[in-house]
Amino acid sequence: MAHEIRCGVEGCGNLPAYEVILYDIYMDIGEIFFEQDITCPYLCPKHMIENEQQAHSVKDTDPPAPGAVRTMVEIMQTTREGSPIRRDRGFVHYPHTNKNRAQGFTIYRPLEQNKTKIIPGVM
Predict the structure, then answer these.
(1) Mean pLDDT of successive 10-residue segments in the chain (123 residues)?
(2) CB–CB of 33/24 below 8 Å?
(3) What's the CA gap between 46 and 41, in Å, rounded?
(4) CA–CA distance from 25 to each of 30, 34, 58, 101, 110 (Å)?
(5) Would you list the domain boundaries of the chain?
(6) Which residues is 106 bridged to in the sheet?
(7) CB distance 25 to 88 below 8 Å
(8) Which pTM does this prediction carry?
């Protein structure tokens, strides 16, 4: 029996239109990270748009002194950039996806619900 996939946002019962992918480039070794976001693997159109509209990148414009430790929360509170900047080894904060705060950014792969059966965890 096939499990019907729903949008990954808590409380949303909508069918997804997008598979959520975490993407990053490792320039120093020439590799690409391209994996399904296990924290929110699918989004409906409404939540995909909301996810992008509320996305913002974090830029550490005032680095701490050598040896000092700053938490991600401290950095986010003081150094938010206006629009999300998608760059290798950067970090983009989203309201629904990338809850483990992986480096890189989220991309969305359109699903064709009528043509393809969705199998959880399989790309």
Answers:
(1) 84 97 89 95 97 80 51 49 56 91 92 61 53
(2) yes
(3) 15
(4) 7, 9, 17, 15, 21
(5) 18-110
(6) 22
(7) yes
(8) 0.67
